[in-house]
Protein backbone atom coordinates (compact mmCIF):
# COMPACT_ATOMS: atom_id res chain seq x y z
CA UNK A 1 0.00 0.00 0.00
CA UNK A 2 1.22 3.49 -0.74
CA UNK A 3 0.28 5.14 2.53
CA UNK A 4 -0.05 3.64 5.99
CA UNK A 5 -1.82 6.48 7.75
CA UNK A 6 -4.75 5.33 9.84
CA UNK A 7 -6.84 8.50 9.78
CA UNK A 8 -7.74 8.97 6.13
CA UNK A 9 -10.90 10.05 4.37
CA UNK A 10 -11.63 6.50 3.09
CA UNK A 11 -11.13 5.06 6.59
CA UNK A 12 -13.44 7.68 8.09
CA UNK A 13 -16.09 6.77 5.51
CA UNK A 14 -15.68 3.10 6.41
CA UNK A 15 -15.96 3.82 10.13
CA UNK A 16 -19.14 5.81 9.48
CA UNK A 17 -20.51 2.84 7.55
CA UNK A 18 -19.69 0.60 10.48
CA UNK A 19 -21.40 2.98 12.91
CA UNK A 20 -24.58 2.93 10.79
CA UNK A 21 -24.99 -0.85 11.07
CA UNK A 22 -26.53 -0.91 14.59
CA UNK A 23 -28.96 1.86 13.60
CA UNK A 24 -29.93 -0.14 10.52
CA UNK A 25 -30.56 -3.23 12.66
CA UNK A 26 -32.58 -1.22 15.19
CA UNK A 27 -34.69 0.25 12.41
CA UNK A 28 -35.49 -3.29 11.26
CA UNK A 29 -36.29 -4.42 14.79
CA UNK A 30 -38.67 -1.51 15.29
CA UNK A 31 -40.31 -1.89 11.85
CA UNK A 32 -38.95 1.39 10.49
CA UNK A 33 -38.48 -0.05 7.01
CA UNK A 34 -38.05 3.30 5.25
CA UNK A 35 -35.27 4.29 7.66
CA UNK A 36 -33.71 0.82 7.28
CA UNK A 37 -33.67 1.24 3.50
CA UNK A 38 -32.01 4.65 3.75
CA UNK A 39 -29.42 3.45 6.24
CA UNK A 40 -28.61 0.31 4.29
CA UNK A 41 -28.41 2.35 1.10
CA UNK A 42 -25.94 4.68 2.83
CA UNK A 43 -23.87 1.70 4.01
CA UNK A 44 -23.83 0.26 0.47
CA UNK A 45 -23.04 3.57 -1.23
CA UNK A 46 -20.35 4.23 1.36
CA UNK A 47 -18.71 0.97 0.32
CA UNK A 48 -18.28 2.25 -3.21
CA UNK A 49 -17.27 5.71 -1.99
CA UNK A 50 -14.56 4.57 0.42
CA UNK A 51 -12.88 2.40 -2.19
CA UNK A 52 -13.11 5.05 -4.89
CA UNK A 53 -11.78 7.77 -2.60
CA UNK A 54 -8.90 5.53 -1.47
CA UNK A 55 -7.83 5.06 -5.07
CA UNK A 56 -8.34 8.66 -6.18
CA UNK A 57 -6.66 10.16 -3.11
CA UNK A 58 -3.94 7.48 -3.09
CA UNK A 59 -4.87 6.63 0.49
CA UNK A 60 -5.01 2.85 0.26
CA UNK A 61 -3.91 1.32 3.55
CA UNK A 62 -3.75 -2.18 4.99
CA UNK A 63 -5.94 -1.13 7.91
CA UNK A 64 -8.40 0.47 5.47
CA UNK A 65 -8.68 -2.72 3.43
CA UNK A 66 -9.24 -4.74 6.61
CA UNK A 67 -11.80 -2.22 7.95
CA UNK A 68 -13.66 -2.18 4.64
CA UNK A 69 -13.83 -5.95 4.42
CA UNK A 70 -14.87 -6.24 8.06
CA UNK A 71 -17.59 -3.63 7.61
CA UNK A 72 -18.93 -5.42 4.53
CA UNK A 73 -19.11 -8.70 6.42
CA UNK A 74 -20.65 -7.07 9.49
CA UNK A 75 -23.33 -5.44 7.37
CA UNK A 76 -24.21 -8.64 5.53
CA UNK A 77 -23.99 -11.00 8.52
CA UNK A 78 -25.88 -8.72 10.88
CA UNK A 79 -28.61 -8.38 8.27
CA UNK A 80 -28.88 -12.15 7.82
CA UNK A 81 -28.87 -12.75 11.57
CA UNK A 82 -31.54 -10.07 12.07
CA UNK A 83 -33.62 -11.67 9.32
CA UNK A 84 -33.10 -15.05 10.99
CA UNK A 85 -34.12 -14.09 14.52
CA UNK A 86 -36.38 -11.08 14.11
CA UNK A 87 -37.54 -10.47 10.57
CA UNK A 88 -38.12 -13.93 9.12
CA UNK A 89 -40.79 -12.53 6.81
CA UNK A 90 -37.98 -11.32 4.54
CA UNK A 91 -36.35 -14.72 3.98
CA UNK A 92 -37.12 -18.30 5.00
CA UNK A 93 -34.78 -19.70 7.65
CA UNK A 94 -33.32 -22.34 5.32
CA UNK A 95 -32.26 -19.66 2.81
CA UNK A 96 -30.61 -17.63 5.56
CA UNK A 97 -28.68 -20.71 6.69
CA UNK A 98 -27.61 -21.41 3.10
CA UNK A 99 -26.28 -17.84 2.90
CA UNK A 100 -24.65 -17.91 6.33
CA UNK A 101 -22.58 -21.02 5.55
CA UNK A 102 -20.19 -19.46 2.98
CA UNK A 103 -20.05 -16.20 4.94
CA UNK A 104 -19.06 -17.88 8.19
CA UNK A 105 -16.57 -20.22 6.49
CA UNK A 106 -15.03 -17.24 4.70
CA UNK A 107 -14.67 -15.25 7.91
CA UNK A 108 -13.13 -18.19 9.76
CA UNK A 109 -10.69 -18.84 6.91
CA UNK A 110 -9.72 -15.18 6.76
CA UNK A 111 -9.11 -15.19 10.52
CA UNK A 112 -6.87 -18.27 10.21
CA UNK A 113 -4.84 -16.67 7.42
CA UNK A 114 -4.44 -13.39 9.28
CA UNK A 115 -3.44 -15.23 12.46
CA UNK A 116 -0.80 -17.17 10.51
CA UNK A 117 0.55 -13.93 9.06
CA UNK A 118 -0.80 -14.62 5.59
CA UNK A 119 -2.40 -11.92 3.52
CA UNK A 120 -5.54 -12.55 1.55
CA UNK A 121 -6.52 -9.94 -0.95
CA UNK A 122 -10.01 -9.39 -2.32
CA UNK A 123 -10.92 -10.82 -5.70
CA UNK A 124 -13.18 -9.39 -8.36
CA UNK A 125 -15.75 -12.12 -7.67
CA UNK A 126 -15.64 -11.25 -3.95
CA UNK A 127 -16.28 -7.58 -4.67
CA UNK A 128 -19.12 -8.44 -7.05
CA UNK A 129 -20.62 -10.75 -4.43
CA UNK A 130 -20.61 -8.06 -1.73
CA UNK A 131 -22.14 -5.49 -4.11
CA UNK A 132 -24.77 -8.01 -5.17
CA UNK A 133 -25.48 -8.84 -1.51
CA UNK A 134 -26.18 -5.15 -0.89
CA UNK A 135 -28.49 -4.98 -3.91
CA UNK A 136 -30.26 -8.21 -2.92
CA UNK A 137 -30.84 -6.94 0.62
CA UNK A 138 -32.32 -3.71 -0.66
CA UNK A 139 -34.53 -5.66 -3.09
CA UNK A 140 -35.99 -7.53 -0.10
CA UNK A 141 -36.35 -4.40 2.00
CA UNK A 142 -38.33 -2.66 -0.74
CA UNK A 143 -40.15 -5.90 -1.61
CA UNK A 144 -39.03 -5.75 -5.23
CA UNK A 145 -41.11 -7.99 -7.47
CA UNK A 146 -38.08 -9.89 -8.81
CA UNK A 147 -36.21 -10.16 -5.52
CA UNK A 148 -36.09 -13.97 -5.73
CA UNK A 149 -33.95 -13.73 -8.87
CA UNK A 150 -31.50 -11.64 -6.87
CA UNK A 151 -31.66 -14.26 -4.12
CA UNK A 152 -30.72 -17.06 -6.53
CA UNK A 153 -27.91 -14.88 -7.86
CA UNK A 154 -26.47 -14.12 -4.43
CA UNK A 155 -26.56 -17.77 -3.41
CA UNK A 156 -24.65 -18.74 -6.57
CA UNK A 157 -22.20 -15.86 -6.14
CA UNK A 158 -21.63 -16.60 -2.45
CA UNK A 159 -20.64 -20.20 -3.12
CA UNK A 160 -18.61 -19.27 -6.21
CA UNK A 161 -16.72 -16.73 -4.10
CA UNK A 162 -16.14 -19.28 -1.35
CA UNK A 163 -14.76 -21.82 -3.83
CA UNK A 164 -12.58 -19.13 -5.44
CA UNK A 165 -11.12 -18.03 -2.09
CA UNK A 166 -10.51 -21.61 -0.99
CA UNK A 167 -8.70 -22.41 -4.25
CA UNK A 168 -6.66 -19.21 -4.03
CA UNK A 169 -5.83 -19.65 -0.36
CA UNK A 170 -4.83 -23.29 -0.78
CA UNK A 171 -2.27 -22.05 -3.31
CA UNK A 172 -0.99 -19.61 -0.66
CA UNK A 173 -0.38 -22.45 1.77
CA UNK A 174 1.37 -24.59 -0.84
CA UNK A 175 3.85 -21.80 -1.66
**Helix and strand element order:** HHHHHH
Strand content: under 5%
Whole-Å distance between the termini? 22 Å
Tally the beta strands. 0
Q: Which CATH class?
A: Mainly Alpha
- Helix residue percentage: over 70%
Give the tags.
175 residues, mainly alpha, Four Helix Bundle (Hemerythrin (Met), subunit A), 6 helices, 79% helix, 0% strand, globular
Report on the structure:
This protein is 79% helix and 0% strand. With 175 residues, it is mainly α. It has one domain (9-174): CDP-alcohol phosphotransferase transmembrane (TM) domain (Four Helix Bundle (Hemerythrin (Met), subunit A)).
Helix and strand topology:
Elements: H1 9-29, H2 33-56, H3 62-85, H4 93-115, H5 124-141, H6 147-174
Short description, anyone?
This protein has 175 residues and is an all-alpha fold. It is built from six helices and no strands. The protein has a single domain, classed as Four Helix Bundle (Hemerythrin (Met), subunit A) (Up-down Bundle), CATH 1.20.120.
Amino acid sequence: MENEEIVTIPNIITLLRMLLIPFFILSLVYNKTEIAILLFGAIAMGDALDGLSARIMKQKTKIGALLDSTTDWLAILSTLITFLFIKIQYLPIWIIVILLIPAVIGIIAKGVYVRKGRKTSPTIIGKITIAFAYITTISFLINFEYKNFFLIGIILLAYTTLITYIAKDVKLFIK
